[in-house]
Amino acid sequence: MSSRRTVVSLGLAVTALAVVPAGASAAKITEVGTVTDGRPPRCPDACSVVTRTTALPTSVDGNRNVYVVPSDGRIVAWSITLGAPSDDDRKALEKQLGRASAGLVVLRRGKSVAASVVAGSSIKKLDPYFGGETTFALPTSIAVKKGDVLGLSVPSWAPTLVQGYGTNTSWRASRPTGRCGGTTDERKKDYYVDTTLSVGRSGTFNCLYKAERMSYTATLVPTPTKTTKTAKRTSR
């Protein structure tokens, strides 16, 4: 991954992390979505991007828990790593879809491939951060429950796809059955139809994409747990 990292409004994140109720144990901060294989997004070489959908990660190298929230708590920031599209690719994508943008969403799984968007961040413009990693602090932290999945909502496009994996790495898109895209002119149109889900909406994630993942994480502060003191026994 690129060594270039931008932190946006870090002061807000520091404030959010510092609030721990009196009498509670210190919470262990977790970066949900961390993958340490060092693979960068595939741009500008053979550039592939996510377009106009809400993405639900399902597996990374066979691990289905990478983007699953491990405990109740609050998300205080999220980060994304981006490729650097060539000038020609960028111009073509912006002409069709507008400026690159994305936002973090909290997904609550239902039956089969159904899920609901229960919360989300604001949508952020991504083009100032192409070729690097940036962190967006949340002005108001987002409450999450154990078992929620952290997804990505992309109303335009985002160069954050990491490819070159086996079929045990995959993600799903909130697109209708039979509208998953492809190489023909007719199927390519699927990528330009906006299927993003807003907060409070439910949908089915019918389209499965294998051998690739997206490169983003979120900072989770678990709900503090109260500690109890055991009285010492005195000998007589």
Describe this structure in words.
With 236 residues, the chain is mostly beta strands. It has one domain (5-12, 29-222). Helices cover 10% and strands 38% of the residues. It contains three helices and 15 strands. The strands form three sheets. Strands 3, 5, 6, 7, 9, 11, 12 and 13 form an eight-stranded antiparallel beta sheet that branches. It has a five-stranded mixed beta sheet with strand order 1-8-4-15-2. A two-stranded antiparallel ribbon has the order 10-14. The N and C termini lie far apart (64 Å). Mean pLDDT is 88; it is low at 6-25.
Element-by-element helix/strand order: EHEEEHEEEEEEEHEEEE
The CA-CA distance between the termini, in Å, is 64 Å
Low-pLDDT runs:
6-25
Cα gyration radius (Å):
19 Å
Largest beta-sheet details: 8 strands, antiparallel
Relevant terms:
236 residues; mainly beta; eight-stranded antiparallel sheet; five-stranded mixed sheet; 3 helices; 10% helix
Short description:
The protein has helices at 10-18, 87-97, 185-188; strands spanning 5-8, 30-32, 50-59, 73-81, 101-109, 114-120, 124-125, 133-144, 149-158, 161-163, 170-173, 202-204, 207-210, 212-214, 216-222. The chain contains three helices and 15 strands.
Describe the SSE topology:
Layout: E1 5-8, H1 10-18, E2 30-32, E3 50-59, E4 73-81, H2 87-97, E5 101-109, E6 114-120, E7 124-125, E8 133-144, E9 149-158, E10 161-163, E11 170-173, H3 185-188, E12 202-204, E13 207-210, E14 212-214, E15 216-222
Parallel strand pairs: 1-8
Antiparallel strand pairs: 2-15, 3-9, 3-11, 4-8, 4-15, 5-6, 5-7, 5-9, 6-12, 10-14, 11-13
